[in-house]
Amino acid sequence: MAGTHHKTGYVVITIQKKPYRAHRLAWFYVYGEWPTEDIDHINRIRSDNRLCNLRLANKSQNQHNTGLGRNNSSGFKGVYFSTREGKFLAQIMVSRKRVSLGYHRTAIEAHQAYKNAAAIYHGEFSSEK
């Protein structure tokens, strides 16, 4: 494969001394137009540039399809332990606002609340299927 793997995980191809992300070049090559939005890697593997793994997404949709944050200690996206309440809090981002999904006795219950909300609010861009 042409190009180099960048530290961000993306494959970068340099053309006339200008770096381009390979997934954007692939989109241009197949569809004949430069993508005006983000291109989301459906399986979240940034080097997997197969066309079946790429879709147009706005910034918000692209952010929904992410994995766990580095500082996540619950093991579940959108789930945090509240030491004040002694329970797990489920939260989800909707239109750039944090929405509380309530406190739950277990991380698994909180995760289920997050999954249900993600299906409603994030649809096909939810990382929790």
Automatic annotation (TrEMBL):
It comes from the Bacteria. The keyword Oxidoreductase does not apply. Keywords: DNA-binding, Transcription, Transcription regulation. Gene3D superfamilies: 3.90.75.20, AP2/ERF domain (3.30.730.10). SUPFAM superfamilies: DNA-binding domain, His-Me finger endonucleases. It holds the Pfam family HNH_3. Residues 75-129 form the AP2/ERF domain. InterPro entries: AP2/ERF_dom, AP2/ERF_dom_sf, DNA-bd_dom_sf, His-Me_finger_sf, HNH_nuc. GO terms for molecular function: DNA binding; DNA-binding transcription factor activity. This is Fis family transcriptional regulator. The lineage of its organism: Bacteria, Pseudomonadati, Pseudomonadota, Gammaproteobacteria, Enterobacterales.
